[in-house]
Amino acid sequence: MNIDAQLMSIIVCPACHGTLAAEVDELVCQGCGNAYPVRDDIPVLLVDEARKPA
Description:
Blueprint: H1 5-10, E1 20-22, E2 26-29, E3 35-39, E4 42-43
Antiparallel strand pairs: 1-2, 2-3, 3-4
């Protein structure tokens, strides 16, 4: 996964506005735990597409 550092500094979780951390193939919210997929190095920040925390 190769997401620009400037982009990472401005995007937040659409559900709770928490900070997102880059994992292997997804962005995980440090606040609510939702995990958003990254497809072709493009973050898909849709709440309906998020994997909910266990």
